Amino acid sequence: MTDPNKKTDEQNMREALMLAAHGRGYVSPNPLVGCIIVDKNNKVIGKGWHKKFGEAHAEVNAIRDAEKNGHIVAGATVYVNLEPCSHQGKTSACADLLIEKNIARCVIGIRDPYSLVDGKGIEKLNAAGIKITEGILEAQAFDLNKFFIKFVRTNSPYITLKLGMSLDGKTALKSGISKWITSESSRKAVHNMRAEYDAVLVASATVLADNPELTVRMVEGRSPRRIILDANLRVPETAKVYSDENAAQTIVIATEQTLKEKSEIRTLLSSRGITFIAASALNNQFILKDVFAKLGRMDIASVLVEPGPTLATVLLQEKLFDELVLFVAPILLGGDARSAFGDLHLKNFQQVHRLQMLLHEAVEDSEDLKIVYRSKDLSPVGTRL
Predict the structure, then answer these.
(1) Structural element, H or E, at residue 256
(2) Which residues are catalytic?
(3) Which end of the chain has fewer CB atoms within 10 angstroms, the N or the C?
(4) Distance (Å, whole) CA 295 – CA 197
């Protein structure tokens, strides 16, 4: 039998998800949360979202909104895309607040997988006699908080590998010229992605070749932290990532030996606010699993990797990515152009890296195509484990 409330619940949850998305780029490593409060006649009386890390949660902001406009929250229904927290952190527990306000019903997208919550908020609400409905727009709720979910489950950041390429999988001409394979619209889309991630990561070869800024410029949004993989500290101190106004947002990954041997350049860059991390390496190649674990300990919950072919190949071989995002231009560059990936040394089709397509769409105002994949070898974030 069809639940007559389901359509209304989905409509209200959809709005809560839209509100939650306003926090992208500003709340990490906390989750994106939006909240809608409706009265007995399904009239919206309060809206709120988590706006900034360390500040009030969505439920608090929605209640403040309702009460500021003279509404009584008692007896209302609260829609929230993530289970209300049940513990005292930087703010008070939202479950306790909802109980204090005597709401009648709480509709939840997904449970919060963080160990200090993970069903405990729902238990509190149930014990207080508040009616609970779970799993409304569950898939969308998981996808919205994929960074947070991966991070709290593994203590490692969500890794997205982004590549711009031609139809035949090339990222530059033989000479190394790569500006521009994709359209301006695709580049804007990449800047939008940067604004959503905690950090953008490149190898030193990319910095030496292109001297990129790795900031958000073509769209509105905050710039992420910049991570440079530079085992031997080859990048000069004049590089934009080390000398511009965002220098203090830069993290350099090097080997412990190099940091000891090149203490002078380390001291100079440290005076600009640049952070250094010593990471394990084998044959002068970073053990990327160790790199990502150390970034996780810095509360970096999501990393957008913009790699050259060497780094892209290692990430693919070691299955160290959660998503692969391709921006494909309708051009052909031929066999002598530089490929997106290096040799994988596959001996048979059982060794092929198979991917699951999540999305394919035309880039707005462009002839480029955006394709998003997830590795079939990885446990999808958007499902219960």
Answers:
(1) helix 256-261
(2) 59
(3) N
(4) 13
